[in-house]
Write a structure and sequence with these properties.
Number of strands: 8
Distance between the termini: 50 Å
Shape: elongated
Helix content: 55-70%
Strand order of the largest sheet: 1-6-5-4
Number of helices: 15
Largest sheet: 4 strands, antiparallel
CATH class of the largest domain: Mainly Alpha
Low-confidence stretches: 1-5, 378-383
CATH architecture of the largest domain: Orthogonal Bundle
Number of domains: 3
CATH superfamily of the largest domain: MetI-like
């Protein structure tokens, strides 16, 4: 009897163990996802913070100093004897602890016994600064970086040595308009063609349909770099090289296989009864496509639109080869590369330019993100 009474407890232990394992699995997954989000968010936050800081702040402190932290603040100065030899160890006065340090150590900062910090206020004048710690945040923000980057006008600033310098703006506004002129048609054209093709493969019966669809799927593995040289030769013969049309056609050709495959998986799963009812009522294929297929396929269309837009917007190779390095037609990625070469140390300008390139893709993604998940799951569930 005792053995029979003990047997019902076993399923309870198994259930508790399964729940515990499920809880551990959720914790692990959520922790990994949180770390991934953190890894993406921190650089973006640093990019934004650096783009609105001044040239001097970026040169003297990290972007994370915009948050409250303990920092050294000069509370006073002490004049060393004018005859102090900076090439020899320097003995500080008694009120500064009386320690002996080299000039380079003082330049890096020396902490004396009472916790204060000693550094040079004016090395040539033999003046040292006494610094104490206090809580503070570097919130000296400015939008001048964006003004200088977007405009092509000259601007003046004070350099670290106190001299006044004048530089030419980078005129990213023109490159932004060029990128929009390239990206919007290169996104809309393949979507329209792929939507027609997906409807034909899914709901129209014609000879060689499966063979053609197999070829479309096979084209997914063809890398863009393989076709650059042959396409460039054809563009030169057709006098298309150096025009936006060349970029539109290139992105359309290499975006179509993925677009057709993605839209086919979605369109083929639409309810057959709706289309059959439309055929019975006398609707043509074009009417069904425009009145039924396109509205019902909006999640898949938006999902591919995000992928295609981001691909074209962030593209550098195709634009560089088929448009060229002419200043009047350069897109944002090309101008940003030029800025990285000519302004390698001007982080306030580079970060502002980089954040400008992120604004439009972020707007597009957040505008279409409600369709994104549904579009990614297109055709994954049957029945």
């Amino acid at each position: 009897m005792a053995a029979a009474a003990a047997t019902p407890a076993r399923p309870t232990r198994r259930t508790g163990s399964a729940k515990r394992q499920q809880l551990i699995g959720k914790i692990v997954v959520n922790t990994v996802l949180a770390l991934i989000c953190l890894a993406w968010t921190i650089p973006t936050l640093g990019l934004l913070a650096s783009s609105i800081r001044t040239r001097a702040d970026i040169a003297n402190s990290g972007w994370w100093t915009i948050f409250p932290h303990q920092q050294f603040v000069t509370t006073g100065t002490v004049d060393l004897p004018r005859e102090t030899d900076l090439r020899q160890p320097i003995t500080l006065p008694a009120e500064l602890g009386g320690g002996t340090y080299t000039a380079d150590q003082i330049t890096a900062g020396v902490t004396i016994p009472d916790g204060r910090r000693i550094t040079w206020e004016n090395r040539r004048g033999r003046v040292v600064a006494i610094q104490g710690t206090q809580w503070g945040a570097n919130t000296n923000f400015t939008l001048e970086n964006y003004q200088n980057v977007l405009s092509g006008r000259k601007f003046t600033y004070i350099a670290a040595d106190g001299s006044e310098k004048t530089e030419q703006g980078d005129d990213l506004w023109g490159a932004l308009l060029n990128s929009i002129a390239v990206t919007v048609p290169a996104t809309i054209i393949p979507i329209l063609i792929a939507a027609f093709a997906a409807y034909g493969f899914a709901w129209m019966r014609f000879p060689g349909r499966f063979l053609l669809f197999t070829l479309v799927v096979a084209l997914l593995v063809v890398p863009l770099q393989v076709a650059l040289v042959p396409i460039l030769r054809d563009y030169v013969n057709l006098d298309l090289n150096g025009t936006y049309m060349a970029v539109w056609l290139a992105h359309t050709g290499f975006g179509l296989p993925l677009a057709i495959y993605l839209l086919y998986n979605y369109v083929s799963q639409l309810p057959r009864d709706i289309l059959e009812s439309a055929f019975i009522d006398g609707a043509s294929h074009f009417t069904i496509f425009t009145r039924l297929i396109l509205p019902l396929s909006m999640p898949a269309l938006a999902s591919f639109a995000i992928f295609q837009f981001l691909w074209v917007w962030n593209d550098y190779l195709v634009a560089f080869i088929f448009i060229g390095n002419q200043p009047g037609v350069q897109v944002l990625t090309m101008r940003l590369v030029d800025m990285a070469g000519s302004r390698g140390q001007d982080w306030h300008v580079l970060t502002a330019g980089a954040f400008v390139t992120m604004i439009v893709p972020l707007i597009v993604f957040f505008s279409l993100q409600r369709f994104f998940v549904r579009g990614l799951l297109a055709g994954s569930v049957k029945g």
